[in-house]
Design a protein that fits this description.
Two copies of one chain form a homodimer.
Chain A: H1 24-31, H2 35-43, H3 50-63, H4 69-76, E1 81-86, H5 92-105, E2 111-116, H6 121-132, E3 138-142, H7 148-157, E4 161-165, E5 175-177, H8 180-193, E6 199-204, H9 208-223, E7 232-235, H10 241-254, E8 260-263, H11 266-279, E9 288-293, E10 306-310, H12 312-327, E11 336-338, E12 341-344
Parallel strand pairs in A: 1-2, 1-3, 3-4, 4-5, 5-11, 6-7, 6-8, 8-9, 9-10
Antiparallel strand pairs in A: 10-12
Helix pairs in contact in A: 1-2, 1-3, 2-3, 5-12, 6-7, 8-9, 10-11
Chain A binds a DNA duplex (16 and 16 nucleotides) through residues 16-19, 23-25, 33-37, 39-40, 43, 47-49, 52, 67-77.
Chain lengths: 349, 349
DNA sequence: CTGAAAGCGCTTACAG
DNA sequence: CTGAAAGCGCTTACAG
């Protein structure tokens, strides 16, 4: 027995700063291997003898060992975390995207750090700054617009990023979404097909995607020679059913000849349908109405709402799959995935 | 110069496992104090000379220093994290609760780990197990029901816990919510006041709270001598607008004399209102309808929906405040806070 | 009020 | 295929 140099932990471990939880060292000891072998076994690293692997796994199970993510992150310089940032959690749309992301990432042992930036670039920047400190493996972001500081932060991090909801065509950019312009144009063509002549765009919460939809819509109307700028009604206010009702009232009062309306989302359209019912304005007889996103309730309104169905589960699922590939340094066949959209024609148009 | 024993970091730091990000040591060096003083200054620990504090803060700002949460968590044996678990993110209700929680906790430098367990006790248990590994400061949970294993895990963690949505009266239990029974009873009394005699309860997603509402409702009807078990219609299926429409159809077909319905949530009621319109059944003339939660859209339906307004922002805000107090070892005047509820009478009843 | 030492629980990088 | 050593970037516990 050496007298000096007693480096190993003292016999009674329940001292000082220990948490009482079993550690890798405990698992290693109880399965008769070194901590590093235990670590490799638990991480599923192929080079470990399968026999040892099962011994280690068993020991871990009996001890109720769960890896300490902080220690792992500190030692490996990255966490097992993916950051997912959305502009709003109040929008069912993004909940479904996040849900799909979870379904792909959780089984891989990754955790998802959710951030809601309330459509504020400043909040988004703050979230990025804070979450980057966690050394995530990658980020799933909404759209392409963000503050310069945020972009600089992201670039400096050199982390994989997949941008959701919109499409782009730049080298080194990864995204999963659909053409918002094309969707807007599809709505315009549908209303034109219905013989509508005085067609309005009603929008709130004017984010990049809402503007793109409007653009596609406008161009299609211009192409048909039926675009009237006076029939574009936009407010930066938060979108809601109440706002939809109010905007519809105002629009129809000022422009009684309007015979078709594209709402930038379903919430606004719901409000308009309710308000029309109250005013005795018949939909679609006098006015056709079309929403966007096709939320679950839209199929059940009276009249049932025509809408663009967006494939948010697909978006979340494929974006998560992309980030997984990027983490594993796999080649992506297609850096930007177009999941498309679907015009669901119902009674309101 | 000593020859052996060169323990200090080599001059050029950009070696090996470093991440390139500024560390506390960098901040300390650049402000001429020791790392531990820098740490204390940044954490706002009172014992540090105010002059040094500002020097350290400045240095941190210039360097763009952000604390490494993994290192902090490892050294201090806990993270700056609060776990918040809800049974569903698809329910706007819980989004609003989480929103309020964020508003209280984020400014305190805490992070919120959100977990959605899809109404599954197994998933909840798994989330608790995984999140506990992060050494959170406390947990915000929904209701009181969970698996025994989950309860054991929580008890062993000795962490502060606040349970949301329901009320309890046990020592050592902290909660913020309202009496689901009382809310159910209030609906029953309202329908009785309206002169209704054949009153039904329609419920889906039969969690503890839905059952409690039903209980309070049932007792009030029994008390009035007007309870008919045949008019209780329950399905474990996920609640949705579509399910609400279907359940209403079935109920009214089998019991054409029903003249009042309490839906366990607004979604079901919305579906019923739409379906009634389609079948030409007049609401409230032939049947009164009452929902639960008072979602935003309920005020805009035709007819506008009578509902119980639940104070979810209050619940989130006060639960977060409670957990903060518990973390700081402050005494709570009131371990269980009743935020109440409000019957919002509109056109549908 | 400030600091030197030790340690949190892992994984990396290097050997063998 | 396995392991001893060192280190990740902080904070705790102890001194002074």
């Amino acid at each position: 027995m050496s007298t000096g140099n007693h480096k190993k932990p003292s016999p009674q471990r329940e001292v000082s700063r220990r948490t009482g939880r079993p550690t890798l060292a405990d698992v290693a000891e109880s399965s008769g291997v070194s901590p590093i072998t235990a670590s490799r076994a638990l991480r599923g690293i192929a080079t470990v003898d399968p026999h040892l692997v099962s011994k280690v796994r068993e020991a871990a199970a009996t001890l109720g060992y769960v890896v300490n993510p902080a220690a792992r992150a500190l030692a490996s310089a990255h966490s097992q975390t993916i950051v997912a940032l959305v502009p709003s959690l109040s929008n069912q749309l993004f909940i479904e995207v996040l849900e799909a992301i979870h379904e792909v990432l959780l089984p891989q042992g990754l955790e998802v750090l959710i951030g809601d930036y309330h459509y504020s670039p400043d909040e988004e920047e703050k979230l990025i700054r804070n979450y980057l400190a966690h050394r995530p493996r990658g980020l799933l972001l909404t759209g392409f617009e963000r503050s310069e500081a945020a972009q600089a932060l992201l670039a400096a991090s050199r982390l994989p990023i997949v941008q959701m909801m919109e499409l782009a065509n730049a080298p080194g950019v990864f995204c999963v979404g659909f053409s918002q312009q094309a969707a807007g144009a599809a709505v315009a063509r549908h209303l034109l097909d219905r013989g509508r002549k005085r067609i309005a765009y009603v929008a709130a919460q004017l984010d990049a995607r809402v503007m793109q939809r409007g653009e596609g819509f406008r161009h299609a109307l211009q192409h048909a020679g039926l675009h009237d700028p006076a029939l574009e009604m936009m407010t930066p206010a938060r979108s809601s059913v109440a706002v939809g009702g109010d905007m519809f009232s105002e629009l129809i009062t000022n422009n009684p000849d309007v015979d078709g309306i594209f709402f930038c989302n379903d919430d606004l359209a719901h409000g308009a349908i309710f308000e029309a019912a109250r005013q005795g304005i018949r939909v679609p007889q006098r006015i056709s109405m079309v929403g966007f996103n096709d939320l679950p309730i839209s199929a059940h309104m009276t009249p049932r709402l025509t809408s663009i169905r967006t494939l948010r589960a697909d978006i979340g699922q494929r974006a998560a799959t992309q980030i997984l590939s990027l983490i594993k340094h796999e080649k992506l066949e297609n850096p930007c995935v177009d999941v498309g959209f679907e015009l669901i024609v119902r009674e309101s148009s």
